[in-house]
Write the structure tokens for this entry.
Amino acid sequence: MPTPDFVLELRRFVGTRPLPLVGVTAVVEHEGMLLLGRRSDNGALTPVTGIVDPGEEPADAAVREAAEEAGVVIVAERLASVHQIPRVTYENGDQSDYLDLTFRCRWISGDPFPADGEMTDVAWYPADPLPAEIGPEMRRRITAALAPDAEARFEGGR
């Protein structure tokens, strides 16, 4: 996965120490199907994900990432979940703490394809049942986005 330029610039100052970043997950639904792709770095089947650029609205980041990664036009309909992902340590030693904002999104147009190389395959999958190979963290995000209630889910603060 290509690292955004702003993260590379920050890494020049912080080295491998934990870097707090905001990420988005775009759970794109269309007629009972979900847009999922196979990540090129680890082969996992996931919704579209990405990092919010400095000054960018998170919902706009979800829309941008769907266009960049899957070649589709979407609209973010609602914030579904806010969740601090456990610290990620990459092979090079870089550490990141991602605050994930998951959005329920609606497909507008475009036939999905692996547009920028971050995914090796992108396609529509049935939402019910979810493919068994989806990991527990992504399953949690998808479930939150597909829940019929309109309130965002979050942890803590109680």
Notes: The radius of gyration is 15 Å. The beta strands are 19-30, 33-39, 45-46, 48-51, 73-84, 88-89, 95-109, 119-126, 153-154.
